[in-house]
Amino acid sequence: MEEALAPRRELSPRLRQLGRFRRRLLGRPLAVVGLVLVGLFVLVAILAPWISPYSPDATHYGALLQPPLSRGFMLGTDELGRDELTRILWGSRVSLEAGVFSTLLAVAVGLPVGLASGYYRGWVDPVVMRLTDLVLAFPYIIVAVGLAAILGASLRNVVIALAIAQIPAYVRIARGEALAVREEDYVAAAAVVGASDWAILRRHLLPNVFSPILVQATATIPAAILGEALLSFLGLGVQPPTPSWGTMLSDAQSYLQQAPYLALLPGIAIFLATLAFNLLGDGIRDLLDPKGFAR
Amino acid sequence: MLWYVLRRAGAALVVVFVASVVVFIALRLLPGGPALALTAESNRTPQLIAAINREYLLNQPLPVQYAHFVWQALHGDLGTSIHTDEPVTPTIVSRIPITGELAVLAVLFGVVIGIPTGVLAAVYRSSVWDYLANAIGLFGLSVPTFWLGLMLILFFAIRLGVLPSSGYVSPLQDLGGNLERMVMPAFVLGLPVAAVVFRQERSAMLDALRADYVRTARAKGLGELRVVGVHALRNSLMTVITVVGLNLGALLGGAVVTEQIFVIPGFGNLIVQSIFERDYPVVQGVALVTAVGFVVVNFLVDVAYSLVNPRIRLTGAAE
Known about the structure:
The structure holds 2 protein chains of 2 kinds. By secondary structure, chain A is mostly helical. Chain A is 73% helix and 0% strand. By secondary structure, chain B is an all-alpha fold. Chain B folds into 2 domains: 2-74, no CATH class; 96-276, MetI-like fold, CATH 1.10.3720.10.
């Protein structure tokens, strides 16, 4: 067994674990494809202003609804003569922001609330649980649609709406882990030797909750990317002229006959972005799920 | 057992109550009140606004409005639509069978496709078939349903002209026309279900095939078809049923989108439409019906599990 070999260099156990994790992940071709696609997606989102051929709002009235591969416009132009490639590249920014920020926000709220609720119990716990029940009583998309309608249509509000819809899942995961860990002997031992609650939370609860949260994040990021596209498609999300794949699709609906590529391209972009996170997520889940090791 | 059921029922009631309060309050926080939404800017007089506020009790204190709302709702009266002047309850009741049909067809599609492919993928693990089915499963999970719907319309309705692009006909009036219009929406809504069912069935089947009772069945000399088709399949189905139950919520969310694309006048369509029109009474009614529906379903699922699995009931760890 690999683990049995003495490491040549002295590495901290955590670093060694990380290295092992990386080697296992890289041993899965699909996960590698996902990782590469996610990397590409992030890179495009960061570099969009520099690699786009035009400005996203630049209109070319001499070249309306040009098909892909036409002169000067690799992926064609839309009904206002805006370059499709530029808008798809810029759209990745909105997508990534919505996906990543909503998940970060949901973790930032859900993790401490869940940990505290599970660790301290008391009267807070049932209140928190009923609140999560409440949000979970409505389908994710409907929560997001309702919140976006209340908050008003903007990218910031889309992020907030998607985050609120995700929070209950994180609260429950963190609470479940806290409930399980607080009964462990090593936590009781830590308390006996005088460790503070804060130290116990940091040293014993957080490491345990890390992998289920990571697994959940790989599921909520693509869901939030789809959610943003959907809200923008319905007119409840990012507002024109900001390029978003969802609004682009919604605009394309009116030109399905003349310019089907306008509906095709943003959809492929959304699909690839979601697929990338799903592939990477599958890989991570298989590695972190204890059952996965047995396979 | 009775104590457990009562406790779950109590929790469910609390959720319904809180949901009704939240829905009620949230709607009044929407930018632009109903009086503004109802009137054109040109003929908006203070008298008209006051009359509208009086008619819908919007000038009363919030607790009075809420008490009135709950009292009426308990009598099956969810108010009158601000937009169409029609009572809300019959509107909702008329929409539910449409979404119901769509959901049933989608689940049917998901199960009919998902279970056999999952079983085959598990039995012929690591074969070409397994990889292909996994790839299609991932596609089903990652493809945006609203985009898939547009592409289907583009191809089958606009290019080939073999299917109507949108609309709805009651199956009681014209069964053929109904199914013709339901094929694409049911496929779009059912594809993610098929993907989820496939993945669950595959992994449950892999677990089942490794289990002791399967080894015993093989040791008894049973044929492979019987071992897989009866012993392993039956056990793996439990997981799948759970997953389908858990996904009913996602299904309604998906129906909202699907009905929007294919212009189907179902419950999901009513949700979006009423939100856009700021039709307070309709949004209230729709949200309340959704919340009650899901709380009831979750309650029934919890009780059913506790009947099947006594451990849940003893520890109360249903969450």
